[in-house]
Amino acid sequence: MIIGDLDIFYLNEKITELEKRLKREINITAHSSEEYKAKKKAQTGYGKIGREALYDES
Hints:
Helix content: 40-55%
Order of helices and strands: EHEH
Mean pLDDT: 80
Shape: elongated
Strand content: 5-15%
Number of strands: 2
Largest sheet: 2 strands, parallel
Radius of gyration: 13 Å
Strand order of the largest sheet: 1-2
Low-confidence stretches: none
């Protein structure tokens, strides 16, 4: 799952490169920060996830 305001085309390019290297498909779910915050506030599905970001390019 990817959360944040991002360039989906850039992300897709990087995921495609990684898929070729790993020789396997990678499925992602991307949400804007606002969308994720709304889901978390509603305490449904993704709102129960409490992990820190594994990678932050900011």
